[in-house]
């Protein structure tokens, strides 16, 4: 089950972090992985490690997104899987957040996802098959954290987009679903500092942070043929982080 051999998977933001974890899991499942990222140097390295391919892509450019999809189709002949993962999460509190802060967050996280999904659906419609997996977050749709109101809004927006978009292609063998990571030990999370990381570990019932491939495994399931009857849904992958009513519940 969950065999992806012979399928082409395009992963945005696959050069590092959660995207790298997703790309790695897909490659282990047999998929031909195409990494689309703005970081060409790191993207090329990961593509070589996974025996895949790299294409430079700025997801805020609709032309770049269309070109990335075209490159994936050219390499594989078809495009079965899109993992729309690119995202940023700079902090900005409301009293100092600027219009530029808000616009940058939504341009990358929300508009970039829209551009990629729209581009990928074109070949998927033609072949009457496709799996789209969006990387959302628990922050926004379920939880909140000071300094990330703009981030939370973008991640909740992704899920709203996904549900309606899923309906438009439901009868074409195409599914759209999302993974919602909790705190995953990526380069970006590590940059928040050890104090923050320890606070997060203490708030998670497992007392551990997730690994990027934990998200990759969930994405592999949603990208598989076996997940054909699941669409417009989300899977939370957070070590039980959202479960406790209070800190006392996990002591």
UniProtKB/TrEMBL annotation:
Gene3D superfamilies: NAD(P)-binding Rossmann-like Domain. The keyword Transferase does not apply. GO terms for molecular function: oxidoreductase activity. Transmembrane segments: none annotated. CDD domains: SDR_c (cd05233). The keyword Oxidoreductase applies. Pfam families: adh_short_C2 (PF13561). InterPro entries: NAD(P)-bd_dom_sf, SDR_fam. Keywords: Oxidoreductase. Belongs to the short-chain dehydrogenases/reductases (SDR) family. NCBIfam families: PRK05653.2-2. This is 3-oxoacyl-[acyl-carrier protein] reductase. It comes from Marinobacterium halophilum.
């Amino acid at each position: 089950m969950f065999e992806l051999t012979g399928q082409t998977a395009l992963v945005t933001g696959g050069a590092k972090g959660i995207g790298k974890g997703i790309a790695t899991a897909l490659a282990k499942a047999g998929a031909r992985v195409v990494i689309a990222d703005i970081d060409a140097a790191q993207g090329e390295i990961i593509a070589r490690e996974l025996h895949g391919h790299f294409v430079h892509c700025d997801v805020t450019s609709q032309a770049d997104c269309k070109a990335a999809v075209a490159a994936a189709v050219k390499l594989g002949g078809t495009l079965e899987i899109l993992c729309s993962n690119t995202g940023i999460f700079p902090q900005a509190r409301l009293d100092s957040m600027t219009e530029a802060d808000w616009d940058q967050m939504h341009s990358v996280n929300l508009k970039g996802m829209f551009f990629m999904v729209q581009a990928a659906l074109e070949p998927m419609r033609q072949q009457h098959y496709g799996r789209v997996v969006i990387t959302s977050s628990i922050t926004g749709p379920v939880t909140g954290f000071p300094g990330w109101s703009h981030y939370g809004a973008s991640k909740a927006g992704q899920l709203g987009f996904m549900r309606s978009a899923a309906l438009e292609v439901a009868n074409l063998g195409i599914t759209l679903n999302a993974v919602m990571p909790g705190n995953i030990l990526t380069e970006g999370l590590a940059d928040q500092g050890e104090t923050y990381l320890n606070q997060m570990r203490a708030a998670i019932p497992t007392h551990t942070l997730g690994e990027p491939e934990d998200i990759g495994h969930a994405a592999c399931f949603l990208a598989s043929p076996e997940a054909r009857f699941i669409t417009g849904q989300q899977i939370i992958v957070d070590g039980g982080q959202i479960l406790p009513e209070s800190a006392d519940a996990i002591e």
